[in-house]
Write a structure and sequence with these properties.
The structure is a single chain. It contains five helices and five strands. It is an alpha/beta fold and 110 residues long. It is globular, with a radius of gyration of 12 Å.
Length: 110
């Protein structure tokens, strides 16, 4: 499963999680820094990425549009990049199962 990390999470997650989520990228690495949510949504859909964001906007859009793409919503307030990496690592099995469910649109992690 490839993850597309939104601008509100650290680009360091790409390297830090490459062993468990190979092929993942950060929005700035694909020319989408400061892009609109609609542009990021379209890129993720067209390139088979799951969006990872702390922004509730993607969660809300997933209700309206449905998948693809899928959205992993990080529901933690102020936290470190290490905290987010640990959260994604510890929920890897759940994230992969979510990715395999055709109808599932979003997964909230806290």
């Amino acid at each position: 499963m490839k993850l597309l990390f939104d601008e509100n999470v650290s680009p360091r997650l790409v390297a830090g999680l490459s062993d468990v989520f190979a092929g993942s990228v950060h929005v700035r690495d694909v020319g989408l820094a400061r892009a609109t949510d609609a542009t990021i949504w379209g890129y993720a859909r067209d390139h088979d990425f799951t969006i990872v964001s702390k922004d509730s906007d993607f969660h809300q859009v997933s209700f309206v549009r449905g998948p693809p793409p899928k959205v992993v919503w990080i529901r933690r307030g102020n936290c470190t990049t290490g905290d987010i990496a640990a959260l994604l690592r510890s929920n890897r099995t759940e994230i992969l199962a979510f990715g395999a469910e055709a109808e599932a649109a979003f997964l909230a992690l806290s």
